[in-house]
Amino acid sequence: MLQDILDRDSSDMEYRYGIRRLLVRLSSESGVLPTSLFLTGIDCDDKEPFGMGGYADIFRATYKTQPVILKRLRVYLNSRNSEEFTAFCREALVWRQLRHEHVLPFLGVDCVTFKSLLCMVAPWLSHGDILHCMSTLEKQGAVIPFERWIIEIAIGLQYLHDERVVHGDLRGPNILIDANLGVRLADFGLSRFSDSTTATVGSHHGGATRWIAPELLNGGPSTFLSDVYAFACVCLEIYTQRRPFADLNEAQVIAQLMRNQRPKRALMKSGRPIPDEIWSLIERCWTSAIGDRPDMKSIVLELTKRHSSEATESAEPNPDSVDDTAVFPNQSEGSKGPDLDIINLIYGSCGSLLIKEVVLSVRGSLADRFLCTILKIIEEQVTTIPRPSTFYSLRILLFKLASVARLYPSSLFLHGLHFTKKEPVVGGYFADIFRANYDGKDVALKRLRVSQSPRDNDFFTAFCRETLVWSQLKHPNITPLIGIDIESFPSRVCLVSPWMKNGNVYHFYVRESTDVSHRERVDLFERWITEVAHAVAYMHEQRIVHADLRAGNVMIDNDQHAQLTHFNLSFFVGDDENTPPNETAYVSTSRWMAPELLSASISRPNFATDVYSFGCLCVELYTGRWPFPDAANNVQAISRVLSGERPARPTLESGTPMSDGVWAIVQQCWMDPTERPTMLEITTRLSKVVQSSPSRWTL
């Protein structure tokens, strides 16, 4: 009934606002959505989502002959008392009341297509988000309507504020473009009514750290003026076609905001500067003096006046059109045997730029033959001591050719995986883990979540890097890569490795906490840090930086030995051109991050930052708790590291502190970068300390 009242569109704003708030509250507390929201007759042929994110999967469907999207959150109709259901109700009901030409329409809720999993239904917009649309227009040589879009975003945001709705998550991926190249604001998962305190961003930014106002970093609800701050970041994002603080990772972004820094003025892709008037507006919108930020009404007025007196900005065509779809070679052909001409060209590329250019120009099945041959040569040389002078050159050549040809070596492909059920055993923000059987053994499939936003055009390159780095790591304390699976999930690539029933260190601690004595726990700790140290020392000897050392990336095998894993941020030293972008490191890794990285004193991780992280990992492995466990959030932890503080000496629940010898090594890991020991030196020192331990690995 309340929804029916709102649908009649009463002109009394205060009355509508009161009814709206009451509706959201009643629905959230009762676990009931208005029946008028539910749709039937949706036809969805997609078996797999075409877009995946940390909190929702996106499917294409049709409703009354019109193309629509289904935003499937991981919320079941029968989970009415869960926080997830409450969040679903809030987003659906806030979105349902919004009707504006620059807001994506909400069509309703579907609970039939996916067996009571709730989906929000909205029109399908083929242009995708604003960044994807800009990329498409560039490839077509068309004009990008920068200023028109900025104005329409401002108008849409002003409408939300007039409706007393704070968006709370304004950024490029949440701005869609319709068939008329008009702006449509979307994704109201963090939206709320202006005087509500039910939604905060302090503990989870949903990947929006780069757009978040500094006053929200330590928690608290978003506001109209934090939306204005985000609008400034969006203006920069659109004009430069890069995210704010594009060269920094999320932890570094937080450190910059804590120091009252803002993104630098950058050039547009055409080489032209951002218009002076727009830059002036950006600076006023993201000022630290919150009360001095303009409201959206005055912003719209300023922009429309400017637009009426000047021509629309244009963009230069981009001649470099690259297909962003990974190509898989024909599996029926298979990789042919060694070809002397190919081998000669491969080795010749190490000493001749001309030959190297020839090799990097091959495509299709011929490129696959080159890739498989290079990989075979590298695998033969990886155990050779000393390594041939060509080893490192060939390793870099392998990755470059795979990247430009958009191919994985077919020799890594697996066939014949079997599932008992195709449901993830573990689901994370960035990847899902499935359990399957291959060659009679249980295996784990890591399927990365891929955003539907074509801003993620670098997905193939990043996944290819992880695959090729991991494939070359052969060590008893590194989880082996068995191969790649491209058959189980259409258009998805999975990395296959042995199944570890004990999970990572945290899973092991939770499951075994009542059965492992304190003495046994110390023994396990000493074993694990020694094994991880040897694994990292091996990687450094291979000239590979891990870049993400933490307990969540240490698996425990069936014999309770440590296995290092998770190489999505790892890279070959010396291949600066193909080092993972610094921005790919997430704020969730900040507690293990060296201070020189947090402060952006250096641009990339290195061996010394791995050593620092190893010290933090030792503290974490000893207690089963993150570094700085008393820090309320990552922002506080970053602040403490930048002020010179380091994690305290850890103690078990029994009162047993970390041994003097191990603690001394940990403290050495946190010294100034040039004074830190190497991982090889750490393995030697650990061996001496552990050998003198009262009890040695008697499990």
From TrEMBL:
InterPro entries, alphabetized: Kinase-like_dom_sf (IPR011009), Prot_kinase_dom (IPR000719), Ser-Thr/Tyr_kinase_cat_dom (IPR001245), Ser/Thr_Kinases-Pseudokinases (IPR051681), Tyr_kinase_AS (IPR008266)
Coiled-coil stretches noted in the UniProt entry, renumbered to this chain: none
Molecular function in Gene Ontology: ATP binding; protein serine/threonine kinase activity
Residue ranges annotated for the Protein kinase domain, each copy included: 44-310, 419-690
Positions of region (Disordered): 308-333
SUPFAM superfamilies reported in the protein's UniProt record: Protein kinase-like (PK-like)
Family annotation (Pfam families): PK_Tyr_Ser-Thr (PF07714)
Alphabetized PROSITE patterns for the sequence: PROTEIN_KINASE_DOM (PS50011), PROTEIN_KINASE_TYR (PS00109)
Record's protein name: Protein kinase domain-containing protein
Organism: Meripilus lineatus
Organism ancestry: Eukaryota, Fungi, Dikarya, Basidiomycota, Agaricomycotina
